[in-house]
Design a protein that fits this description.
single chain, nine-stranded mixed beta sheet, 5 helices, 33% strand, globular
């Protein structure tokens, strides 16, 4: 099946249960769905997009604030994730459409970077590269190649190094 009529738009309040179902199905569990629900309640400054096919939500992507503290100042950026596409709709470029729409919107907002903890063969197509090349490290112990950054403002990141901090909800999710 190849889908051509998928629209990407901002998540609306009425989409919350469908977004939850997308994450639960795609990840075969509640961890990511619970994280999205928690972030929806606590993080006003977020970008949440859905992919819609035949009036049904088939994909979702979330971007939330992230930052690097360096020498007494915080450099603001974004964390991509979670992102999910319903299993029956995967491999139809829905994830690509979500990432591209999200990154286009973020380029219009403030923020020096976007980080992602993701597949090293998927995200480079969007311009992501290992964050270690920019001397940025994740909060968690993960392989270097899965923590990537897309730099939106090279001047803001020039000479900056350190640990990228996500919102506290990500720690609560990993703790269960």
């Amino acid at each position: 099946m190849h889908l051509t009529n998928v629209a990407v738009r901002e998540e609306q309040e009425r989409d919350s249960s469908a977004v939850r179902a997308v994450h639960t199905e795609a990840f075969q569990g509640d961890l990511e769905a619970n994280l999205v629900d928690r972030l929806r309640m606590t993080c006003g400054d977020r970008l949440s997009l859905v992919a819609v096919h035949a009036e049904a939500v088939v994909g979702h992507i979330l971007f939330t604030p992230a930052f690097v503290e360096y020498r007494g100042r915080a450099i603001s950026g974004w964390g991509l994730g979670p992102m999910a596409v319903r299993p029956g709709f995967q491999r139809n470029n829905i994830g690509t459409a979500l990432v591209e729409a999200g990154l286009a919107a973020l380029r219009m907002r403030r923020g020096a970077f976007v980080v992602v903890l993701g597949h090293p063969r998927y995200y480079p197509r969007f311009g992501f590269q290992p964050a270690s090349l920019w001397k940025l490290r994740p909060e968690w112990d993960v392989p270097d190649e899965v923590f990537m950054v897309l730099v939106l403002n090279k001047e803001a990141l020039a000479g900056i190094e350190g640990v990228v901090r996500y919102r506290p909800e990500f720690h609560q999710a990993s703790e269960g």
